[in-house]
Amino acid sequence: GIQVEQSPPDLILQEGANSTLRCNFSDSVNNLQWFHQNPWGQLINLFYIPSGTKQNGRLSATTVATERYSLLYISSSQTTDSGVYFCAVVERGNSGGSNYKLTFGKGTLLTVNP
Amino acid sequence: ETGVTQTPRHLVMGMTNKKSLKCEQHLGHNAMYWYKQSAKKPLELMFVYNFKEQTENNSVPSRFSPECPNSSHLFLHLHTLQPEDSALYLCASSQDSTSGRWGANVLTFGAGSRLTVL
Description:
In chain A, 0% of the residues lie in helices and 58% in strands. Chain A has 114 residues and is an all-beta fold. Chain A is globular and about 45 Å long. The interface between A and B is medium-sized, with 30 and 30 residues.
């Protein structure tokens, strides 16, 4: 299966700082999603971005599919941005049929201090 | 509230107990998933159901038994679990797990069921 590597594994910021999270993947992918998991475990879909750039408020994401990486930018970070950020890529399932599945990286744990 | 509801949110059980986790989605999706999240490990896909049919079993031990009576409901039946099965179990749904078309496999997750096996 596809390998998904995220960096850095941990990141500590002061409120108001900017950051860039990276996701590398080992093969061509059908699409890519970024998620935020809050401290209570809820995973929220941030972006669905197989290629190009998207922006949503203080967050933006860029995927360069030909070079097999994606970046998540957080600007003017807030304490509520704390949590784990996951990158996940879509690949064919193990069953050999037409099933697709999401494969997750290990995540980046972001802590934003006031 | 994301449109995917999981119950219970917390569960503590002994190794000889039998319990079930429930997931319900109100999004009109046709695919449902169980993921396991253990400490320090990536999310692991366990099962996929598409239009009520199981399409993926990721070598999950038989002590975990899924059930999907319809496209809106998914259960995970648990029996004779081990302490290493303690984890956060996440349910998700998408429009269609077999379609590669744009957006069909965008996942929406529930809040999870945190399981502790004593």
